[in-house]
Amino acid sequence: MVLASESTATDLDVADIEELLAGERQAFDRLVSRHADRIFNLCYRLLGDRDEADDCAQDVFLKVFRNFKQFRGDSKFSTWIYSIAVNTCRNRRKSADYRFWRRILRFGADSAEEGGVLNPEIEDPAPSPLTLLTRREQEILLQKAMDALPQDQKTVIVLRHVEGLSYEEICQITGYNPGTLKSKLARARQLLHKNLQSL
Amino acid sequence: MDCDQVRDILFDAGDSDLPEELRTQVQAHLSQCGSCADEAAALQREWDALKVLPEEKAPAGFLHRVHERIERPGGTQRAGKWLSSVFGGKGLVEAVGLAVSAVLVVVIYQAVTREVPRPKRTAVPPTVEAPARVQSFQSESGKGRAVPDALQPSPAAPAPAGSDLALQKAEPAILTLTLIIPAEAGRRHEAARAAAPAPHDEGMKAPRSAPSPMRERGVQNGLRQDLMGRERDTERRGRGDREMQAARDEVMLKRGAASAPAEEKERHVRQDSRLREGHRGEVSVKDDPATIGGAVERIRKLVEEAHGHVAAIEPSENTDRQEATVVAEIPREAFSGFLNGLKQLGSIQEAEEEAIQRQGGPTVRFSLQVTRPRG
């Protein structure tokens, strides 16, 4: 899952970009095929919904197709497309349409998204449920705890712990400086841990 | 290193490797503190779980949907296609060019057709489009008088041709006529009045009000017979005190305002204002053309008979003559008959026929100055 170390993919990306600049449409298809799952997974982790992630991932590649001439090559293509995905998901979450449907779907359910903290009253002194659940249940629990994070903290947690990107890559994608990124990561870990303990 | 410090280090470092010295200190604390050791283990499990989260695969047909999105026209492209369909298959650039051209045509048309302010005309008669106000007209004595609004040419006044040359040659909208009433006629009439029956003959009613100071002065000035005759005429027509007062005013006008008190002059002006405001036919001297008032009333009657209308009547005072100015409008076909009627009152200095014709329009507007030398 580590993207930065895939030098082969990086070389392929550079070659496809050059062909795309030369007018070869097939190069774009190769780029999509190579990065579609990762971009979709990132969108899904950031948005928590498959349909939203599908739509948002399409938007990401649409933006890539329309703006590939702006890719200067001073960073990896994967970093560039990740930054597009993060911004697209952030804008999607800010949109009134997204908030409306999220509110409808979560109507009646616990939602600590606004405050970033789940209800502490349900904290149980029993062994962590994470150890008791199956893998699938763990996944659902983790996703729920991440969805309860503020968007910026959720982004850095996903990029760091799910996507396994380096601090430098995360700084390039998000635009944060290293100090800001470290503080955001520390707060995000504390809050995620609190959320998981409260589930 | 206490528990809080260790937990802060754990959250800050995350899954990253700690520096060797710091890692040794943390390990030493965790080996002694079970609570912190459990917390560190829980955190490591969480981070491991995040790492092993399954990678969600993009739904089937993802590339196809991306292609559809690429091929699907955006908002601008859709607008361009719509414009192309509207403008018969022309491209967006051509459509925008046509729209800009249309806007330019409209702007230029408005700029060209904007009404240019007409240059001020000096000594040019008024027209229907831009009627110039008649500031004054010269009386026979050379005194200029302001012309009231009622005398200003109406929009129905004939409009000369539009060219500047035609404007310069056009005649004034108001013709100036002069009617001179011979003084002998006045004396003859006064003599006839002197021979008339004395006042308060049978059948006459006494005035309802006491004789005014003006009346008393009229008597003292030898005008008693004249006044009594007018009062008799007035009473016979049942016109009342207001006509009586008008008759007295007329006597004052005939005898000259130089000898009349100031208040009498003012009252006379008020009476004249009533005339201008439409109080027609209420003076008692309508059948006495030998006087200015009677002549004016006769002129008014002539105008009405010619189906015209009087716009204004203005009296004026001079030591050697009595004057009044009548401004009226008469249908063109009746103007010659009106002039014939005026000739019955005195000598008239007619306007040239050519000037009347040049005035144009269905009506003739004129300013008639009536003059009667003092006997």
Could you explain the architecture of this structure?
The complex is a heterodimer of chains A (199) and B (375). The radius of gyration of chain A is 18 Å and the shape is globular. Residues 1-5 and 108-123 of chain A have low confidence and may be disordered. With 199 residues, chain A is mainly alpha-helical. Chain A is 71% helix and 0% strand. In chain A, 36% of the residues are buried. Chain A is built from ten helices and no strands. The longest helix of chain A is centred in the N-terminal third of the chain and has 23 residues, at 25-47. Chain A starts with 6 loop residues before the first helix and ends with a helix. Chain B is of the alpha+beta class. Chain B has helices at residues 3-13, 20-32, 34-51, 62-71, 75-86, 92-113, 164-169, 183-194, 213-220, 224-236, 241-255, 262-276, 292-305, 335-343, 353-359; strands at residues 136-138, 144-146, 175-180, 309-317, 321-331, 347-349, 363-373. Chain B has a five-stranded mixed sheet. A two-stranded antiparallel ribbon of chain B has the order 1-2. In chain B, helix 1 (3-13) runs parallel beside helix 3 (34-51) and helix 10 (224-236) runs antiparallel to helix 11 (241-255). The longest helix of chain B has 22 residues, at 92-113. In chain B, 28% of the residues are buried. Residues 118-172, 186-241, 251-265 and 267-286 of chain B have low confidence and may be disordered. The interface between A and B is medium-sized, with 42 and 26 residues.
